[in-house]
């Protein structure tokens, strides 16, 4: 028995069903809706896999390929299909008369059902647009597929021939080849391909995409859409794609220039509105660089008569809106609209009752950056040099000692010598402090604790350890879970604050502080440190290993200090809530049941579930509810690196290719 069958061409009119074809007894297989897309594919691309036939009573019986045979007969009957008649010949393979039919069918599965090569399909779609003048819409209709699927294939069919050839030869993967479609210019694709393959190293799709980013910005990219009008007005070059959304603004430098101008304008507008001293812009907010900057925040102010009148109006409207939101029959869209209105009013009321000090406005500014497809304003930043000036200003007055000006006959030291003597004295003091560690430890702890717990200015400027309560902004502070607030309040109530008597001089306070038991000092320091810790998600193990390990030690389970509540769930989309219930908590049946409920009902269900897990829960479900929190809040989590490559997903072979 041979492993292949002889090729031949047979007129469609000479083809008949083979009695051994198992599908011949399943007429639903050949119903029009089951072969429509197959018929369309054959009409455009021809018969991609030959039929397996056997000579039978002067005809050629189709042993494998009955659906393709049915599609061919429909094409003959369809007057609109040109080029298909009973005399049209198609490719077949002949099974000898003495061949075992079972063996033939087994072999047919291997030699006639192979799907169409993906690159062939991409190129065929591209030819249909370039040569036949078709559109993605007409191609989609022809093949019975979606416009989006056609657009995806069209892009890959227009990649530079050398790159497609490399994919055919499997020197690069199909995913890597697809990455070159990020830029419509075949010349740019070729240049990048040659540059990346010089060292004969393994080429990844991620590397290709990163290299192409420097060669322009797609018009459909959020930045491209943001600057395009100005870019075109300045005559910037555009690499046009067959599909508009894949065209590229080629002058990356001009794109960045325009983006920075628009960001700068947004920052300046905010500066003028708020009254800050300066404005600046950067494409991406560099958190490492900006760590050196300080920040100022607005403080409470007494609103004037006009502002107070508006605050009263807002308060009245908020009360009315809260009542409306309690309506059980309220639709999701209406509820969300009310919620957004409440947010806006609360923001307005806060702005009327808070303001920056004149001193802060004189040194702080605004930086605008591009984030998540929009302009983001970073308000109240203080440049490092301005922060230094502020600290220096405290000791730079004309009379630093408070004593009267010296007489003309007294010795006066030159300024340079005075500064040097200050340095020498500080060095001597440092040596003395190092030789008296217990007293120095007490002094350091006293300053840290009193700076946090006492009202007013720091107890001393001599020690440049500056502890301040961390400003923690929150859109709805009065709606957060109170567990942590109650725990902190209890810790505060347990503190021994007898030493913190405003009527005493700092030296007397310090003496009383030193007399405290070690355990009481530890409580004070713990409370002060907790109050100064910055707000953030889980620490990055590499960037802050100390706090990463420390947080895991003291807070292995955030749920011991925090519980999700209705306020949180209200800010989730309905689909998110159902996903959390079904996939993360194992409550699949409940998620299905609640899918037809309003978001308000789902929020209420979740609130009750987390407040007190239901008795009907399984042990696994109960454990999931007890442990759940948003992933970024988990103590052991690590922040995502936006620059890391994402896994490439291979595009599956199309239904059209498999069927033809």
From TrEMBL:
Entries under Pfam families matching the protein: HTH_ParB, ParB_N
UniProt keyword Repeat, yes or no: no
GO biological process: chromosome segregation
Keywords linked to the UniProt accession: Coiled coil
Domain ParB-like N-terminal: 8-111
InterPro entries (UniProt xref): Chromosome_partition/occlusion, HTH_ParB/Spo0J, ParB/Sulfiredoxin_sf, ParB_N
Coiled coil feature spans: 304-362
Domain of life: Bacteria
Region (Disordered): 387-408
Protein name per its UniProtKB record: ParB-like nuclease
Organism: Maritimibacter alkaliphilus HTCC2654
